User: Fold this.
Amino acid sequence: MRILGIDPGLRTTGFGVLDVAPGQQLRYVASGVIQTVDAPQGDLPARLKLLFDGIRELHARYRPDAAAVEIVFVNVNPQATLLLGQARGACLTALVASELPVAEYTALQMKQAVAGHGKAAKAQVQAMVQRLLQLPAAPRPDAADALGLAITHAHAGQAVARLQAAGLTRTTASMYRRGR
Assistant:
């Protein structure tokens, strides 16, 4: 299975692609960023189009089977949160238009899955991604977060598949966790 991780941002969107072999073995394929600095700062539609087109290009180039995207957190600055939400929407729309199943994870979930605790610093995420994927150097922060999302989905996706194979639906699984 090939997973495309996306860490959305209006200026810089990180991406990471990895393959998951049987036995949860992870293999690095590619990572990098989509930047919108070529579009005028005040031209939001042009920047969103660059993100949409960039995600579509990644899909065409790497042919992933699934995508994992970071869920936007509410920032102190409402305007920044709205802009980030629009960038995330452009990324999600491109993924759905490419007919990819999309999973969503919070930064806390990704940091827990990759670094072992939800308050991990960017440098810790970078170092753990480097170690988990046996990379010669740490990826830049946006790409590391995107790879971390793909790693999170590789592990969480398999757990969900096992629950479904056992006949547990979301409703049944949530009832089971509550002890009913």
Summary: The chain has a mean pLDDT of 88. Residues 74 and 82 are 9 Å apart (CA to CA). Residues 141-165 form the longest helix (25 residues). The two ends are 34 Å apart (CA to CA).
